[in-house]
């Protein structure tokens, strides 16, 4: 219980030792094992088993509740689809694209080019990265990648 109340969880090696002393491995719970390089092999194996990705943690890294750091990197698999965006809504970050079903945020300088393309042609083809398509056809965590034509990046 004291372990769970800590604000500073210490270095990764200390946390793993404490967790491994408390938990017994099961089919659903596996103990930590360092990954051999190249990490791409481990990543591909996890994706093939239906996993979402990896969290790469630097040796000696620390975890603080509610804070992000550059010592832990989340790497997720994604699919790329072509979206025919037919309209957009302006917002503080740029524009939100829609094809009538999906909504995807497009930010920064690239939003101006996409907006101009939709204004001129009535649509814009955009490459969108997403984690997966859900059973009802929605995209999970869609991210604008690039303006494209014929499925190829401009």
Q: Return residue spans where pLDDT drops below 50 for at least 5 consecutive residues.
A: none
Q: Tell the overall outline.
A: elongated
Largest sheet properties: 4 strands, antiparallel
Tell me the strand order in the biggest sheet: 5-9-12-13
Q: Give the DSSP E fraction (strand runs of 2 or more residues).
A: 35-45%
User: Could you spell the SSE succession in H and E letters?
Assistant: HEHHEEEEEEEHEEEEE
Straight-line N-to-C gap: 55 Å
Helix content: 10-25%
Rounded mean pLDDT score = 83
Radius of gyration: 21 Å
Count of DSSP-assigned helices: 4
Number of beta-strand segments: 13
Structural class: alpha+beta
Briefly summarize what is shown.
By secondary structure, the protein is α+β, with helices and mostly antiparallel strands. It contains four helices and 13 strands.
What are its keywords?
13 strands, elongated, alpha+beta, four-stranded antiparallel β-sheet, 154 residues
Write up this protein:
- With 154 residues, this protein is α+β, with helices and mostly antiparallel strands.
- The protein is 25% helix and 38% strand.
- The strands form 5 sheets. It has a 4-stranded antiparallel β-sheet with strand order 5-9-12-13.
- A hairpin with a 2-residue loop joins strand 12 and strand 13 (152-153).
- The chain is elongated, with a radius of gyration of 21 Å.
- The mean pLDDT is 83.
